[in-house]
Structure formats: C-alpha cells, structure tokens
Amino acid sequence: MERPIAYDKLAREDRFVRMRARDVAELKVSQGLPPFPDLSTHDSMRERVHGILVGELQAMEGAGRTVCDFPDAPWEFTLDMARQVWDESRHVETYLGLLEHLGGRLGEFPETTILWRCACAEDAAARVAGVNRGLEGLACDVFNQLIHIAGKIGDPILEQSVDYVLADEITHVRMGSRWLNELTRGEPERRRKAIEFQETIDERFNLGGTRQDGQHDVVPISIAKEARKLAGFTDEEIERLIKSTQRSQVY
Amino acid sequence: MLRALGGWIALTPELPAKLLFGRHVWDCAQHADLWGKRLPELRAPAQQSEPANLRMVKFMDLLESAEGPRQTVERVAGVYRVLKPHLVTVYAHHLANANPVYEPPTRRILERCVEEERRHAAAGAMVLARLTRDDAARERQKTWEQQLLAQLGEAGGVTGDGATPLIDAAVLAVSPHAVKQDLVDVPPDFDPAVLEPELAAAVAAYGAALESGQLAAESLVEPSARDAVLAEHDRFGDRVRRCRVVALAAVGRHRLVKVRLDGARMVGYVQLRFVRTDAGWRIGAAELVRMEPVDVAPAL
Fold it and tell me: What is the predicted ipTM?
C-alpha cells in the first residue's frame, strides 16, 4: 500500500463541493457575513453542524491513515488510533442525525480540507500533536459552546448528542498527550517539531480572532478551559493558547 | 486487514463503504490484540504475527492493491466476500475442534471473532449489493473475487495448511437485526430538485448553451468573469454531450453548483459560483475541479 498518501487523494462523493477555507471566508466577508458561522441564527447553527460533520469525516479518515501509515509504531499506539477511527465513525453518524434534526442536507455547505491536510503530517508524533491536541482541542472548544447554546435555546437533542461526542474528544486529546510524550521520548528535536506543528495549527484555528477567551454567548468560539483541563492540557498551555488568540486578528 | 481498512477510508468516495470500514477498524484491532496477547500464553512472542507462507503475502498484497478511487467494489469484495468469510470459516473450524477443557482462553477469543467477523461479512455484503447495481460492477466483483480466491487457495488459506474449505457458507449465517449496528444510514443521493426554480432555470440555460457550443454567446456569465469562465471551460477540451447538476452548496447568498459534463472522451466536473443580480442568477466564477476518461467515471 502507498504510505503516506498525497493529501489530494481524499475521496468524496460527487454531492460534496470542495473549497479552500480562505476562499470561503473571503466570500463570506465580501457579503458582510462573519467568516465562521456564529450560532446566532438557525441557519448558522446548521452550517456549524455541517462543518463539524465534515470535520468528523476527515478525523475518521486521518486516524485511519495513521493506523495504516505507521506499521512500525508501538502496537498500543495503533490500538488507540483504531479506537479513534471507530469513535469518529460514530460521530459522523451522530452529526448526520443532527443535521437532519436541524433540517439540513449533506453537501449543503462547501467542505474545506484544512483539517485533513493537518492529518497528513509525515511524522506520527506531529500527527498526534496537531490532530489530537490541536484539532481535537479545538473540537472541545466548539462542542462545549454548542452544548451551552443548545441548552440555552432548549434543544436537548443537540445538547445531549454533542455532550457525548465531547466526552470522546476529551479522550482523544488525552491519547494525543500520551503519544506525543511516548513517541518522542529521548528525541527532543522531534518533540520540538511536533509541538511547533501543533502551535501552527492552534494559530491557524484561532480563525482570525474568532476563538477567544470569553463567555459562550459573547465570543464566536469560546476556549473551553475546563474541558481542556479534563483533557490534560496544563494551565500554562491554556494560557499560551489564550495569548496566541490575542495576536490572531487577521484571517 | 486492520491497516488496509484504516488506509482505505480516505481513498473511498462512497459514504456507505467509507463508514463501514470506519466501523470495523476497531473490531479488527481488538481481534488482533486478543490473538497477540494469547501468543505468549502458548509460548510464542507476544504481538508478533507472521504470514503462513510467501503465497499468503502475495494474497494480502493483491487484496491491498485495490487502492484507486474507482475500486471500492474491489476493496469491499476483497475483504467482505473473501477474507472475512474465510476467517469465519477457519475460526469456526478451529472452535469446533478446540478442546473445551484445555483451551477455553482460545475458545473465548474464537467465539468473539466468529460472531463479529460473521456480522462484518454480512454488513459488507449489504453495502456491496448497493455498489453493484449494474452488470459491469457485478462482473468486476466476480472477477476480483475469483482472482483472490485462487491466490488464497494457492496459499492454503491463512493458516497455510489448507485444512478447511476456503469459505464455508454454512457458518456465515447471521440475523439481519444483528447486522444493523454495523451499518450507518446515509442520506439519499443528491436531488437536483433542491435548486430553487430560478437557479434551476439558469443552470438549465447554462447546460443547453454548453451542449450547443454557445456558452460564449450567453448572457448568463457576469461580464467581469466572462474570460476566466470561458477559459476554464476550454480546459475541458471535449464537446459536452450532457450536463447535469450533482451538488449544490451555499456560501451566504452565493450558490455553488457542481455540474458533471459528459463528453465523448472525457467526463469533467465544474464548480460554478452563481450570484443573484438584478437580471437574475449569473455565473460569477467557474472552476474545472476534476477530469477523467469516460470509461472510468461512473457517477458517485
């Protein structure tokens, strides 16, 4: 089997429209819209849920590639990644149901592949740092806020479904922290590069100041400090993330 | 098999098959883990697997070689119609002969693996039936299965001793109810009726203009985008015989319409960005996102 594969080999049914994240954001801004759906309307909730759905799809594909691409990695690592594939496949099912619940349609919004590209890092340590800690950390922020807003608008289906998914995401971040340490034990340079990769991803997914420290209903994406602590992020790491959001004002 | 299924998820366009693989990767990992942990109890190194013989390696190489975007039928057939049914057969045979007094640890693993692999195989067969609705696809499936079975037979099966039949249909039966947990309900295929009427009319006019070779004369394209849109269509390089909508997405008030263009030699996919103007929907941008020869481009 080809290992690893080029990121443009990601396969999709025809019903998906693929666009660069930057182009989507620019097109929205040109229409006076926020670059990222802000959960202020039913339509923006649906768009956010659609975005999460394709994110889960790409997370499943990325974890699957990690199972395939690193046959020489420790067996326990492969087991954790295989578990993650299964979790992500269940998340796809959950979000397909939620999209239907919100009256949405698969393919209703364009898919960006920024998440998948991050999952194509050549080093396993960089993948777990970038995907499990960077992107699944972002998922903790996004899901935590979605749960809060679903509770506020009285949508128990959305609230409870996302709460179950959040529990898995917290587990995935923990897996990432464990494997970042174990895969780079005795290799400080490899560890430095993996963490640097994660920080690039954190920076990119601050989404031009969209992710911030603040109340759920005040900021577009609120940093989920408690969920992040549960997932094993240190206070220092959370502080560093908050600081990085303060210098990401341009998309 | 675990690594092949994991790697194929990203390479497989069809959602039912993609999610089927996603569902089963963890079960396969747990089976491998159970066997790997049992090995040292039988005085062999833990978590170390080795093929029965080189012909078995060839079989796995052949099975894993179906990596192309249009080879989902081969991927599903290889794993779910050949390898998994073979494993169920071998496990069931082993279980029938494993001593209930001395070998309960092995028997417990076998019982679990038989049950789950049987369920997987049945779920895979259901997905495969959806992928092989036409004669050509069914023929491809049959040919591939025969090729794999021949190679597996030469290897003497996964154990290399040829002690059991390759596949024993009598041990594969499973209730449809049990299989439900392995399948994800996927939304129906794209329906062009979701296009609002005015947009549908504009897309129909675009399709007619392409088919008659008159796109350049059409007022459907925004003047500022005209040259770029025409140049993008020139890249297709084939006479359009048929144009149909395969996807619709929204970015604010703009609509992204993906159309499939069928030519004599090529099939192309163009993403059009429609903008609503005072004169109605107009094309503001176009991008040819994919092209492939006619004979390898079934609709997905």
Answer: 0.95
